[in-house]
Amino acid sequence: MKSPVRVGFIGFGTVAEGAVSILTGQQALLRRRAGFPIEIVKIADRDFTRARSAAIPSDILTGDVMEVLTHPDIDLVVELIGGIEPARSYLLEAISHKKHVVTANKALLALHADDIFQAAADQRVSVGFEGSVGGGIPIIRTLQEGLSADKVTAIHGIVNGTCNYILSEMTRHGKPFSDVLKEAQDLGYAESNPTLDVGGMDSAHKLTLLARLAFETPIALKEISVQGIEHITQADIAFADAFGRKIKLLAIAKETDGFIEVRVHPTMIPKQSLLAGVEGVYNAICVTGKNTGDTIFYGKGAGAQPTGSAVVSDIIDIGRRIQTGADSQVTPFPLKPDAPSLPVKQMENVESLYYLRLMVEDKPGVLSRISGVLGGQGISISSMIQQGRKAEGHVPLVMMTHKAKERHIQEAIATIGQMPDVSEPVALIRVEED
After folding, report:
1. Do residues 42 and 67 touch, judged by C-beta distance below 8 A?
2. Which of 4, 245, 257, 310 qualifies as a cystine partner to 37, CB 3.0-4.6 A?
3. Rounded CA gap, 25 and 54, in Å?
4. Are 34 and 178 in the same domain?
């Protein structure tokens, strides 16, 4: 029988507990599929008083992280504490001791992928990060291996379950954002401080990894244009429905004219599209390839068992290399000077269709003046909805534009927003076709 692959964990929270429960509860299955046993040597955490579903012998628990990082019998270290520091230092320390590492820390990789993968390449060890995007959806390995023969041209992803739950419930039940957010927090779908999720930054962290894998180009987090869902109203959802669309928070990466677009924002998409049908806390990622066309990956994007399963899949994958004595995996990020690299298109130069919602005074000439501002920026209107007069004299005016450049649309709405006939800031949502 082959010798076991020995693993140490840093952090014993929700995802770690899921991974450990899989390793301890499915030993026979994992041994059969992997071809070798997997042994948990040490688990380091600050708090072992919390009740956990996985029964762990007390002698493998420790409050000293260095026992994991320097243990001579540990082949692979799993980091699941989250955050930037001390997680970054722990991973680099483990790598310096020639230990393979696995992490689900998308925020850390979004900021420090190059440092971590360069250190791993220098020490000829592997880095697994399947659990960092999409929970149990095997999207990382798909981009690294399954689609390695294809040229990816675009990625459109629903990669944050909290936002998708909120938008789904707002659409289904007609409730305002604040009420649904409170429900999501009560159900454990949203954090007490939900800013990273609803503000779009969690999706942006994940998009840096997806875009770098797909386009072999280093993407800095600051290069991604990010907008959250806090401003979405029931009026926007109703008008989207009238236009045959739904609103989803999308992480988008696409190659256009020799540039890469990377952006996260609420997006109107056709109701008949596959992504429009993704409801609740589920994630879905559409990868468009030159040869394969559209491929859709759908599943639970978070949680102990789905993400824990992704972590264990990394352990098995790296364990096979350990067993065969193979060198570390080929790094998925461009570290060599001759690696292909495309420039990131500035958001102001991105072209899109746009939904605009205005509250305007209901009197002659207003529409003509607004159309004139848009026309002055080269923006044409494809369709429009104008509701009847209300007692207060202001009515919603909703427009869909033809394709326009972001810079021009922003200049136009800034001008329109200063018009005395317009009573509220202009609401803007970008529109993607099927």
Report:
1. yes
2. 4
3. 8
4. no
